[in-house]
Task: structure prediction
Amino acid sequence: MSDATAFAARGRTWRRLRRNPMMTLALGVLMLITLAAILAPVLTPFDPYETNIRARLKPPGDGHILGTDSQGRDLLTRLLYGARTTLLIGFVGTGFGALLGGTIGLCAAFYRRLDSVLMRIIDVFLSFPSILFGLSLAAMLGPGLDSLIFAVGLSVMPGIARISRGAALSIMAQDYMDSGRAIGLPVQRLLSGYLLANAYPPILTYTTLAFGDAVLLAATLGFLGLGLQPPTAELGSIAAEGRSFLFLAPHVSTAASVLIFVIVLSFNLLGDALRDAGDRRSV
Amino acid sequence: MTDQRPFPGIAFRLAGFASAAAIACASAAAAQDTGTVTIGRTSDADRYDPQRSSALAAAEVLYMIGDTLVTLSSDLKTVEPALAESWDISEDGLTYTFHLKEGVTFCDGKAFTAQDVVGSMERWLTPDGPYVSTWKAGTVDSITAPDDMTVVYKLKAPSSGLLYQMAQFNFIIIDPEQAESLGDDFGVTAFNGTGPFCFESWTPNDSVVLSAHEGYSWGSPALGNTGPAKVDRVVWKIVPEEATLAASLQAGEIDASYSLPAWSIAQFDADPSVTLLQPEAAFRTHYLGMKVTRDFMQDIRVREAVSHAIDQSAIAEAIFFGTVEPTESYYAKEALDYDPSIDTAPFAYDPAKTETLLTEAGFTKGDDGFWQKDGTPLTLTYYGFNTSREQAETVQGDLRKAGIELNVELYDSTAIWAKLREQTYDLYQMDYPYLNAGDALNLYFSSASVPSPNRMMWEDEETDRLLEAGNSAVNAEARAEAFMALGKHLHEAILWKPLLLEKPTIAIGPRLVPFEPAGISGAAFGTGLNLELQ
Result:
C-alpha cells in the first residue's frame, strides 16, 4: 500500500463515519456527557457533598430536577460528579490498558522470540473473567481511585494486546517491512513509523469498544462496594445506594443506571461505527 | 404492655410494592397448615448449639427449643424462676443453690434432673473447648448435684450479674448425653431440649422446623402462657432479601418477622392488616467510639466538639424512618442501675458548642471553613461497617458542616474486626445488646479489654476499681452504687457519642394474635409460648 492509497483510505473512512447517523448521535451524546461532567461545578448550584438528611429521597421536582438521594443531596449534581469519576476511571484506565496492551502486542509481533512467552502471559490474564479479575485486584489493592484505574486498566489490557498482535502480524508480512529492515532503519522507526502507523485502526476500534467495558467495570466495582469511599460520587455506587430504596424511591437507582447504560451504549455504537468504516474489505 | 408505636408518615407511597407482593403471592399459592406459624428472617445460624454460637440467629431458635434455669421479667429488671423453681445465695455471694422444678422432661421423654444441668455446664466450661461466651458463667469453682433436684453453683469470686446472665441463651440446658454422642453434629442434625418446642429438622439457609412439645407446662408465669404452646408448628424461614421479606409478609407467605427493613416498617404502620409489636424492654445501643490515644481525640474538648456536631435525631428519623430512638447515654435510661443524675448534655446535638469548644482547644477556622491547629487540619478517620454506609455518610456530612473533615473507611463484617484492632482511626461505629448497666460496662471499659473490645484505649484505674466493686458486690444496693458511679464517671470522660436506641420491631400478619415480645438478647419471639393464631 502506498502512502497515497493510505490517505485515500483514511479520507474514505472519515466520510463513511460522517454518513453514519448512529455514530454522530453516539459521539454527540458522549461529548455532551463528558462536557457536562467536566463543567459540573459551573452547571449546578448545589454542593455534591452537602447533606440534608431530613430532605432525603425526594421525588423529582421542587427545585431538584431529579430529586434527592438518600442523604438529601441533589441527585442530578451527584450524577454529574459521579459521571466525572466514572468517566475518569474509564478513560485513564483504558488509556493505561491500551498503552500496555498495545506495546505488548506490537512487541510480540515484532520480536518473534518473545511472542509465545508474552502471549501465554496474556492467556493467563484472559482466562479470568474481567469482573472477577477487577474484583480481586480492587480487593487486594484496597479502595481508592488509583487502584480502581489500575484494576480497570489491567482488565482491558489482554484484549488490546491480542488485537494489536494480530494487526501487527499482518503488517509484519508486508514487503515494506522487509525493505525498511533492508535499508537499515532503526528499530524504533520500524516500530512506530511502519508497524504502529499501519496497524493502529483495529487497535483504535477495539479500544473504543473497550471504553464501554471499562466504564461498565468501574460502575460494577462501585456497585459491589469496592469502589471509592464516601462521599465521592460514582455512578455504580449511586445505583447501589438507591437499590435499598427501589420500592420507596425508584428514581435514584433508575437515573444512575440509565446514565451508565447511555454511556456504555454510546461507546459501543461508536466502536461499531469505527469498525464498519475502517473495514477495507467492503468498499 | 404491648407497645404499638406510631411511626411518622413518610414523603411518598410505595410504588412497586403492590406488584412485588403480587409476585410473592403467586409463589405462596401453597397455603400453610392451620397450626403452623412461619417466621421470616434474613440469615441463618451456623449451628443451633447454645454453647457454640453467639449469633442472634441461633438464640432466637434456641429460646424456643430449650430452657434456662432462670429468666427475666419483661422489664429485664427482676430474675424469674424457669427450670429452677427457687434459689438461695450464700451471704458471701459465692454459693448459689438452685432447686429444680419437678416433672420437667426433654423432647425425647427423658426426665430432666440436676445431672443435666451439671453436664451442660461442664461441657460449656471445658477449658480450650470450642465454646463461646464462657465469661458469662463467672469464675466457677465447682458445679455439683447433691441430689436429683438440687444444683450447687460455687464461684471463686462473687459475681453480681450472674443471675441476669443466666437468663441468656448460652445457659440453655442441653441433653449432655446427646451432645456427647453427636459431637460436631449436635445442634445440626438434632437437638434434644426441654423447651416449649422440639427441634424437628433444619435445612441450612432454608428453614428450621419446630413442633410443639407435648405436655410442656413449666413456662414462666411472669411471661404469659406457661404451656403447652398454642400452635402446632413453628417454621423459621430464610428470605435473604429484605425487600422480598417485606413482600412475603404482605402476601401472607410468612406470618411474622423482625428482620424487616426500616422503610417497610414505616409502611406497615399504615397497613391495617399488619400489626407492629415491640418488647417492653430490649436494649441495643448504636454508638460511635472515640479513640482517646489519638492526637486530636486525646483532648476531651475535641471529643465533646465532635459529639455536639452529630445530629442523632436526624439519623433516627431519616435513615431509620423513626423506628429507633435517638439517645444521649451509653446505655438505656430504663436499664437496671442507670444513674438518672448522669449529665447527658455533652451528647446533645449542638453545633454552636462545637465552635466554642474547638476555639477553646486552640483550633482556628481556615478560609475553607475547616478547623486547623498549628497548620494541621482537623481531619479524623472513621471505621464503619459497609452495611451502614448511609449512617457513615450522614455523620460525615454533619461533621463537614461543623468544619471537621472525616475520612470514612467502610469494611465488610468479615474484615472489620481485624481493622478495628488497629490504632489508625479516631472514630468507629458499633452497636451492642445488653441486659443492664453492669452488662454494658463490663463489656467495653475495663483496661483488661484494651485494645479490643476497649477500642477507645481507655485505661483508667478508677474505672477498673468501680467495675471490680460492682462485680463483687454481694447485694443489689452495693452493686447499683458502684455501677451508677462508674456510669457517671465514664459519661463525664466522653468516650462515645451515643446515637440510637434500637428495639426489635415485630411485624405480624393478620393470622397471628398480637402478643408481648420478649426482650432478652433481642430474640423478640422469646419462647414462642405466646404465639397464637386467630
Notes: DSSP finds eleven helices and no strands in chain A.
